[in-house]
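Reviewer 2 asked us to include a model.

Predict the structure of this chain.
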Amino acid sequence: MTTTPVVRKPVAWGRIALHVGSLTALLVMLYPLAWLLATSLKPADEVIASFDLLPSHLEWSNYSTALDGVNDVSIWRLLSNSLLIAGGAVLGNVISCSLAAYAFARLRFRFRGPLFAFMIATIMLPHHAVLIPQYIIFNQLGLVNTYWPLILPKFLATEAFFVFLIVQFMRGLPRELEEAARIDGCGPFRSFFKVVLPLTRPALITTAIFTFIWTWNDFFTQLIYLFDPDKFTLTLALRSFVDASSTSAFGPMFAMSVIALLPIVLFFLAFQRLLVEGMASSGLKG
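Predicted model (structure tokens):
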């Protein structure tokens, strides 16, 4: 009777080091979020003076103060203003960028190549370079201190990155589907709405998610165009919180930061699967 020797597998030190490194990087990335949550519950004298992560006792009054809002404007009004601007930007980018992308990806017209190259070149143009001309135009139209300067450009396909994203996705769709639709009597618009648009859902979801996050976190553009506290968003209200109460309002300010973070987290979690699918199949993978 022969016994087979027990073969010990070598310890995969490289795999262990990879997991340890990944966990360390995860903790480093999550530490600011943990610090934000902990600081939102700290008393006012511990926010700056103490280096401890956990508060000595939970100061729930920070959240009650944050819910009262700033400058006699409730946080629900600030939240609704932010949702209105972000929702309008999402709707505008999804509609206009998908139409522009369909024209570049499927239609044949003169100067299509140069126009597409010019549009791609605008991605490298800094936002601040066009801010002053845009402000002058909206000021002459009497639209300053309204939400239109923050929403209207989105309906004009000004976000070249999203146009390029959707173009790359549409180029991967089989043309036979549109040809079959044309044989059935569909024109370009019906082919777009009935055939192409439903198949482009992953790219549209990706556009919606990034637009929502970027618009929600936008501070500089909203600071330029909005003056009335009743029209302020949550990002502008955070600045007003500090200006109005100085250092004594750090606790409520961080509490309002947590409240402002929740819609982004929920929006991302709701569409996370479609975001990964859209990025994987949009052509940005290389």
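Residues 80-283 form a domain with the MetI-like fold fold (CATH 1.10.3720.10). Confidence is low (pLDDT under 50) at residues 282-286. We have added this to the supplementary material.
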